[in-house]
Amino acid sequence: MAGRRICTGDIEPLLEGLAIMGTGGGGNPEWGRAILANDLTRGRELWLVSPDDIPDDALVVSGGMMGSVKTLESLSIEELIARWEARFELLAATSLMEDYLGRKVEYVVPFEAGGLNTPVIMSLAARLGIKAVDGDGLGRSAPETHMSTFLGHGISLTPMSLVDTLGNGIVVTDQVAVTFADEIGRWMVTRGGGMGANNHYPMTGKQLRESVIPDTSSMALALGGEVIAARRSGGDPLVAARDALKGMDLFRGRVTSIRGDDRGGFYVTEVVLAGEGPRAGREARLIIKNETMVLWIEGRLRAVFPDLVCMLDPTTGAGIMSVDLVAGKEVALLGAACHARLRRAAATPIGRSAFGGSRYGYPDIAHVPIEQLGGMTGGGQGSGG
Questions:
Q1: By residue range, what is the domain housing residue 335?
Q2: Which of 164, 197, 214 represents a domain boundary (last residue)?
C-alpha cells in the first residue's frame, strides 16, 4: 500500500484548494501551512492513502480541531505550534478514543476539507506513524460534527472523545438527539480555552469506503494547482477554479453590510453584497455559520447547504475566510454541487435533522439542488457515486 507522500512542493496547491473548498471555514490556511511545514521540518512523514486501499476490518476514526474561527484568529500560530510539540490535543483525544475502544487506531480521516482541519489530521497521522485517508466527511467544511456523510450512511457519531486546551477530557458514549455530542463539545471548548480537539465516527475500512467523500485532498491539490497556474500565467484564476470544481459563477460584488457575532463557538453572520460589473444594481445575501449556508440573489434562493458557495478573491482566486469579510471587500461567489454521497446522507431522516435549515436559523429552508435553483449544468462534486 504505497499511498501518496506529501512533500514541501505540495503545501501551496493543497492549501489553495482547501481554502476554496472550505466555503469560508475549515480553518485559516496559514495555520495549515505552519502545521505541515513544522512536521516536514521535524522529519515527520505525511502520507495519504486511498479509501480503496484500506482493509475491511481496519479501525478508522475521524476528528479535528473544535472551536470558533474567531478564537483561532486571536491566537499566535507560532506559540500554538510550539505548544503542540509538548501537548497536542488531537493526539490526546485519539489516545482517549483508543482507551475507550480498547484497540489502536489504524487510519484517520478528516472530518472536513479545510485549511486547518485537513492538515491537522495529516499531522495527527504523522505523529501516530500511520496514514491519513485521501477523503473526508463532507468534501467542504461545515460547522457541526453531525453534519457529515458518515452519519447519513449509518455510522454513529459516538463515541466521541473530547480534549480541550486546559487538559479536560471526556468521552460522549452515546446520544439520543443528533446534536447532543456536538453541543457537549461546544459547551466544553467555550469553557476550556476556546478550542479543543475530538475523535468521532469510529468505523471499519468497509464502512469508510461506503460512505466517505473520496479523494478530496487530491482534488484540493489539483484545484489549487490550477488556480496557481492561472495566476502565474496571467489567466483568470476564477475560471480555473470554476472549471476545476465543475461549478458555476453565482455573483460578484462588494460587501455592503455584515451583521452577526460569535455565539457559542460559531461565527454566525448575514452578509449583503452589492453587485459589480455585469451584476451591477443587483444584491446578494449570504447566511454564514462559520461556512456559507444559504445564498439569495435579488431575493431568490440560489444555493442551500450542503451544496457549495465558495467565496473567492476576484483578482487572485484565493479562498476567503468568513472572518475576513469586511465592508468594502470584493468577493466572487462560485457554486458547486456537493458530492452525491453527501446529498444522499443529507436526505435521510437523520440527515435532515443534522443538515436542515433549523441548524442555521432558517427552519423553513430545505435543501434544493443548486442546479435546480440556478440552472447549473454539469455534476460538480455531486457527479461521484
A1: 245-383
A2: 214
Record the pTM: 0.93
Same domain? 198 vs 331: no
In a domain, 224, yes or no: no
Alpha-carbon torsion, ordered 112, 292, 237, 272, to 10 deg: -160
Q: What is the pLDDT of residues 325-383, one digit of tens each?
A: 999 999 999 999 999 999 999 999 999 999 999 999 899 999 999 999 974 433 445 44
**Average pLDDT over the chain, rounded to whole?**
92
